[in-house]
Amino acid sequence: MIRANDPKIKSWVNIPENSDFPIQNLPFGVFKTKDKSPRLCTAIGDQVADLAVLAEDGFFDDLDIDKSVFSQPYLNDFMALGKTKTGAVRNRLSEILDDDLEEWDAKELADFFLHPQKEVEMLLPVKVGDYTDFYSSIEHATNVGIMFRDPENALLPNWRHLPVGYHGRASSIVVSGTPIHRPKGQTIPQGADQPVFGPSRLLDFELEMGFVIGKSTDLGQSVSTDEAEDYIFGMVLFNDWSARDIQKWEYVPLGPFLGKSFASTISPWVVSLEAMEPFRSPGPTQKPEVLPYLQYSGKKNYDINLEVDILTGKGTQKTITQSNFKYMYWNMAQQLAHHTVNGCNLNVGDMCASGTISGPTPDSYGSMLEISWRGSKPFAISEDEERKFIEDGDTVILRGWCEKDGTRIGFGECKGEILPVK
User: Fold this and answer.
1) Residue 185 — φ and ψ, nearest 5°?
2) Is 140 one of the catalytic residues?
């Protein structure tokens, strides 16, 4: 067992009930305050631990890591150290914060390296070089196929043979809490033969998970499903905002463009793949059998509970869906193997998103498109509010967590408010 994952360890830092951030999690992020420049941190309970201060105080000296890595504005240089080093830092943090381990007693320094999360500003944790969005939930793909194509042949012929994906826009990936202006563009009104220009009327969220690349490859190199997890540093919550009406008009023949590129929101915390180890889950049976390069062994899915709330401008908040990452038809190892099978190179900081995560029942659908069934089934937020799609003033809040044997490993919140068109 990885030391930091040991469920018996207790921290001397107070951990609120149902916290996403027990000592068994220790995710990585980047924060700043009025007095401190951007630097690396971890979360423990409702506190942020400043890794730059811990490094300066010598807590990582024996790990042979340049202290300047912890004072960077992104995690990229830290991730590039490799999993041996980053795992050693996570284990050291579990020792520093362990209530029973006196060798690294840091309690007397708590005021210097701990900050209440509510008093710091969390920043985009990764400098994203390239971003790929997949389409890997069979339930979501089937629902969309029924709505827009042939109910009897909802999936396109390639869907069960490869993880469908497209190259998205990295520059518009933002951290949780960043407001999003309603996008504008071309749409085609129902029954019209000419497009019009204006604000999107069918604005949607997409409930997704993202994974971050922590190890680069050379051009021409492929990564196998067995090797894939060596290249995945960790995971984030991912809201791939979508303008459905813009997307519908533009996506043939080359796929999404302006309907997606205006913004994607991620959680500020990157939960390491090592912290997720106890929550591995078997994936669904894949039929027909996939080609050899996509075959894998072991449990490659993860049991991550997911939910989405809408907080309206009137202050009403409601959970509108509950899903799970374990439903994914194509897992991360297969996605990365397919991504690189043609020799496409990976860089540290690249991000891949799962695609909308929908479950088998309507209360587990991962988008407004499905929940309202293309707008034909409005649903109630309160007695006097209903929704088909997202309205100005709405805040969409994604949450995700794993839970087993009394241990909860979570991602915090991934939220964004929709502002009127700019």
Assistant:
1) 170, -165
2) yes
Q: With CA atoms as reference, report the closest residue to 30 among 49, 14, 45, 15.
A: 49
Instruction: For residues 246 and 196, give the distance between their C-alpha atoms in angstroms, rounded to a whole number.
Output: 10
Q: How many CB atoms lie within 10 A of CB 14?
A: 10
> Tokens representing 284?
């669904």
Q: What is the pLDDT along the chain (422 residues), one digit of tens a residue?
A: 789 999 999 999 999 999 999 999 999 999 999 999 999 999 999 999 999 999 999 999 999 999 999 999 999 999 999 999 999 999 999 999 999 977 778 999 999 999 999 999 999 999 999 999 999 999 999 999 999 988 989 999 999 999 999 999 999 999 999 999 999 999 999 899 999 999 999 999 999 999 999 999 999 999 999 999 999 999 999 999 999 999 999 999 999 999 999 999 999 999 999 999 999 999 999 999 999 999 999 999 999 999 999 999 999 999 999 999 999 999 999 999 999 999 999 999 999 999 999 999 999 999 999 999 999 999 999 999 999 999 999 999 999 999 999 999 999 999 999 999 99
Annotated catalytic residue: which of 140, 161, 338, 339?
140
Extended strands (E) in 200-341: 203-204, 207-213, 232-239, 242-243, 264-266, 271-272, 280-281, 301-302, 305-311, 317-324
Helical segments of 80-220, H only? 83-96, 110-113, 138-148
Backbone dihedral angles phi then psi of residue 178, each to the nearest 5 degrees: -75, 125
Q: Which domains does the chain have, with CATH numbers?
A: 3-122 (2.30.30.230), 131-419 (3.90.850.10)
Q: Taking the C-alpha atoms of 258, 259, 263 and 269 in order, what is their torsion angle to the nearest 10 degrees?
A: -130
